[in-house]
Amino acid sequence: MRVSSGRKFTKILGAELDKLVTLPLIGFILIGSFLLNLVLAAAFTSAGQQDSAGTQSMLELGLASLRYTQAGYIILGILAACSEYSGGQIRTTLTVIPWRGLQLSAKHLALAIITVPAAFMIAASGVLYSLFRMSNTAAGIDIGTMIKTLAGAAGYLTLTALLSAAIGSLLGRTTPAVVLLLGYYFVVSPLAGELLPGYLPDTAGYSMYMHPSAGEINARTPIEGTGILMLWTLLFITAALVLYRKRDA
Amino acid sequence: MLLYTWNHNRKEVLWLLTIHNLVKRRGNREILSGISFIARPGRVTGFLGPNGAGKSSTLRILLGLDRATSGSALIHGKAFAELPNPLTTVGAALDGSGAHPMRTGRAHLRWLARAAGLPRSRVEEVLEIAGLTNAAGRRVGSYSLGMGRRLAMAAALLGDPEILILDEPVNGLDPEGIRWIRTLLRERAASGNTVLLSSHLMGELAETVDDVVVIHHGKVVADGTLAEVTGNHSTLESAFFALTSERGGDVS
User: Looking at the predicted structure, is the pLDDT value of residue B14 above 60?
Assistant: First the structure.
């Protein structure tokens, strides 16, 4: 019985992966985010080179652009969830895979499988670019720190995409989910700044790859940041699962 | 082989659709008020009613998409989600294509095949059956209404299921498409499968169905063989109007 459940889940996961890779928008967003990130990383690196004080480490210069390109991962998550509601696909999905909890969990796992390598590549490309450009002016980077920071950045982007997928699934429609999440990440959070508590998904999540500057009040370690963002993600995925199992499709 | 023989002998029991005292409320509105009927193997059952009568709601509950307020809708005694492999048991086609407009028809059928553990060659077979082989590489968004319906039918046939549940299958089809559906459904029933289809098009239904269930305002107003329901009326269409206007007054 357990074996058959495992095989069932593998089939569902395969179908969910197929859905993601055959949706052209998903590929466009991943490639678009990658290219935009390189352009922004170049801009940040140039600005960093002119700033002779050189207070930012090379890693942070290379990753600064992720604050903007995370929009791609937010949209990616929303699209992965909300594409079900386009063309009545949700009804097809549920008449083939009526086990809603398994199906939505497999969808999140499929999204993570695609996001982890893409997020790692986007983070690494920014850092490698700044490393290459600044190789003459800065001291070398500790490889261990670099890998940890890159893993933190990739983890942040992946968790953000999963959180966005859960919110997309809760709302069931692309536009309100995009407005809500981009509005929060790019308007409310930056404007409110330190008025917002430090345990919100973005503020806590940044500490996964950005080291706090000295004297910052809400400073957290990368482990704390990871834990907090994971909790947020699990909370929203759980809420999405509960609602998805209950509501009419 | 043993399983097949066992299934074959028990088909009469196995592939029965039983809807019993189904009630569905949304807010204060009662959409279904105690619907009961049976769809039998080897027969095409037409589920007939004007728009808004509750046909789609009944089919959606039967397919596990919506929850009933009370009552049951079972597929050989089981709720839809309890079927071990739904796609090879029940083929369903609801409104539209049921596919994301940005995906190609072939990609849509391939993920379905993957979910059910079917080979990719089966996708090509159903594309051929539905007459979509040449359009399979195009995005579903570029399909005509009729092509979208054919894709939905291809998806329903993918698992070669014993049961077909179709909501308004001839909607949007050209005369050739309507004829294709008619022949297909008759063939499926002739080989012992159960076919349940909803329609508000009386003329199309009369030539395809064996049994008829008429609903109006969420209630069954007639249930029997085509001859029984038609009764003394000249056509099924006139019987339908007589049944639905006597009971409910206005037919939309």
Answer: no
In a domain, B230, yes or no: yes
Does residue B119 lie within any of the structural domains?
no
Question: What residues of chain B, 47 to 76, have a C-beta less than 8 Å from chain A?
Answer: 60, 63-67
Q: What SS3 class is residue A249?
A: coil
The CATH code of the domain that includes B224 is 3.40.50.300
End-to-end CA distance of chain A: 28
The tally of domains found in chain B comes to 1
Summarised one tens digit per residue, pLDDT across range B82-117 is 999 899 999 999 988 999 999 999 999 999 999 999
Domain ranges, residue B161: 2-95+146-248
CB contact under 8 A, B67 and A248: yes
CB neighbours of A135 closer than 8 A, spacing ≥ 6?
Answer: none
Within-domain flag for B104: no
Give the residue among B3, B6, B66 at the shortest CA–CA distance from B31. Answer: B66
State how far Cα B207 lies from the chain centre.
16
Does any CB of chain A come closer than 8 Å to the CB of residue B96?
Answer: yes
The answer to whether residue B11 scores a pLDDT higher than 80 is no
**Percent helix, strand, coil in chain A (nearest 5)?**
80, 0, 20
pLDDT digits (tens, 9 = 90+) for A43-58: 888 887 665 444 456 7
Q: Structure pTM? A: 0.90
CB contacts < 8 Å between A and B, how many? 96
| Helical pair A174-183 and A66-82, crossing angle rounded to 10 deg | 160
Q: What is the pLDDT of residues B29-59, one digit of tens each?
A: 999 999 999 999 999 999 999 888 999 999 9
pLDDT tens digits, one per residue of B61-84: 999 999 999 999 999 899 999 999
The tokens describing B153, both together, are 């039918």
The dihedral through the CA atoms of A169, A172, A178, A180 has a sign that is: negative
- Is residue B243 a part of any domain in this protein? yes
Report the chain A residue with the minimal C-alpha distance to residue B156: A92
Q: What number is the average pLDDT over the span A56-80?
A: 88
Between chains, do A87 and B83 touch, taking CB under 8 Å as contact? no
What's the number of CA atoms in the CB half-sphere (13 Å) around residue A36?
A: 15
pLDDT of residue A138: 56
